[in-house]
Design a protein that fits this description.
Distance between the termini: 41 Å
Number of helices: 12
Helix content: 25-40%
CATH architecture of the largest domain: Roll
Largest sheet: 9 strands, antiparallel
CATH topology of the largest domain: DNA Polymerase III, Chain A, domain 2
Strand order of the largest sheet: 4-10-6-7-8-19-18-17-13
Number of strands: 25
Length: 455
């Protein structure tokens, strides 16, 4: 069995369902701070029931969607259940599209929770077809009761109520959960518009499966779309991927747009709907054909043994605070900002942290899967480790020569010489835009290059 074929067996006590005006989301167990095998994280009412129902449907819709189908794909992947995290105050639902090109997050804050938070932790949630149909029928102010996890009565019938469920081990999701926060941490707010303008903008988006990159710009109170990049514009390849926001636009007061420094090349972007008591955020990969799982933004950190050891320390100091800024993490762990950032990237490879661009902060989570060895999920990292182990690197003046299968690749870079570069095909194609090649990583591991510089 290959890594991509691996599966995790997740056990549900029963199917998720609506009974009367109560919504029961069954969990697979996952991770929690209590000794319960199947914890309940929250029990109570939602003060914005129709809005919350639509938010849950949006996250589930992204998990089912595939915006890009590679030519090598022979069949659609199985639907994956969204991940839910309770931080002791809020509930956070997350998912990736099947192609890993869209990351969705729906946060329900304390304002929209009228009940009791019973535990902190992370698990998978069973959002099945009957539940989707029931959520779609929720209207207006109809009472909606949310219980994340089974109630105590079901414990007595555990053996009879267990539903065996195999979910493909989300190899791309795990890598996506590592890469998405790195991308989000590099973004800054690029403007916001009213909910009314957001509705107009989404109605104007091309519905075709556009592959070319477009650019969105907030000018005053308007949001415009162009085929050319402007100084403050945000890239958005495949604008049809934003249509998942449409059902919640009627509830939104504001839409905020986030993007990285604009150099005219394809880049990720984030789109946040601000709702009463909640938020829905869609993060788009740089191109429709590029999933977050292949961006390589965490490889530098994984190649650094210091960052790997720092990660445990950062995990301890973060604890289960709702959120911490990078500066707060560094101060609490007594690390420089650069080391704290690298440690957070390492934690992301196991899905243990995420990033909220709105608050400029990191939040904790633990996925209910065995992420396995980080190197098993990153072939470039495995290749680099092998090159170092086999002694394939040597310094020749200002160059690092890497011997690979009868060929030589030359890595340039070091103290005072700027970012590293390589003569290999990968570097010629991506120019570092999708993370370093295995040869640059190997040079880093062998301490032949300076540590990466963080802006």
């Amino acid at each position: 069995m290959t890594a991509s074929d691996a599966t995790s067996s997740l056990r549900y006590r029963a199917s998720s369902a609506i009974s009367g005006n109560q919504l029961g989301l069954q969990t697979s167990g996952g991770w929690n701070t209590s000794s319960l095998d199947h914890p309940r994280f929250f029990v109570g009412f939602l003060t914005e029931p129709e809005q919350a129902a639509q938010g849950l449907l949006a996250v589930a819709a992204v998990a089912r969607a595939r915006y890009h189908v590679p030519m090598t794909a022979t069949r659609m992947g199985s639907i994956l259940d969204p991940v839910v995290t309770s931080d002791g105050a809020n509930l956070r639902f997350e998912s990736f599209s099947a192609c890993c090109g869209v990351y969705a997050r729906f946060d329900i804050t304390e304002r929209d929770l009228d009940g009791e938070v019973l535990d902190r932790g992370t698990t998978n949630v069973d959002v099945n077809q009957p539940l989707q149909a029931a959520l779609s029928r929720v209207r207006g102010r109809e009472p909606l009761h949310l219980s994340v996890g089974p109630d105590a009565l079901e414990v007595t019938t555990l053996d009879e109520a267990v539903v065996e469920r195999k979910v493909p081990l989300p190899q791309r999701w795990l890598r996506g959960f590592a890469e998405a926060p790195v991308a989000l941490a590099r973004m800054t707010p690029r403007g916001e518009v009213t909910g009314t303008e957001a509705r107009r903008f989404l109605r104007s988006l091309p519905r075709s499966d556009a592959r070319s990159s477009l650019w969105a710009t907030v000018t005053g109170r308007s949001l415009t779309l162009s085929t050319r990049a402007g100084r403050d514009s945000v890239p958005m390849s495949g604008p049809q991927r934003l249509l998942t926001l449409a059902p919640l636009l009627r509830f939104a007061s504001t839409m905020r747009v986030y993007g990285p420094a604009n150099d005219g090349s394809p880049a990720p972007s984030a789109w946040e709907l601000v709702l009463p008591g909640s938020r829905l955020v869609l993060t788009l990969s740089p191109e429709v054909s590029r999933g977050f799982s292949g961006e390589g933004g965490v490889l530098e950190a994984l190649a650094d043994d210091t960052a790997v050891s720092d990660a445990d320390l950062v995990a301890d100091v973060m604890g289960w605070l709702p959120a911490m800024t990078l500066t707060e993490v560094g101060v609490a762990a007594d690390l420089t900002t650069d080391r704290a950032e690298q440690a957070l990237a390492v934690l992301g490879t196991a899905g243990r942290v995420g990033y909220d661009a709105s608050g400029g902060c990191w939040f904790a989570r633990d996925l209910p899967y065995d992420a396995g060895d980080a190197e098993a999920l990153n072939p470039r990292l495995r290749s680099a480790r092998r090159l170092v182990t086999e002694g394939r690197l040597r310094r020749d003046g200002d160059l690092i020569v890497v011997q690979v299968a009868g060929n030589q690749h030359h890595v340039r870079g070091g103290v005072g010489s700027g970012p590293p570069s390589c003569t290999c095909h990968w570097w010629a194609r991506h120019r570092g835009g999708r993370g370093p090649c295995s040869h640059v990583l190997a040079a880093r591991m062998a301490n032949l290059l300076s540590a990466p510089q963080t802006a």
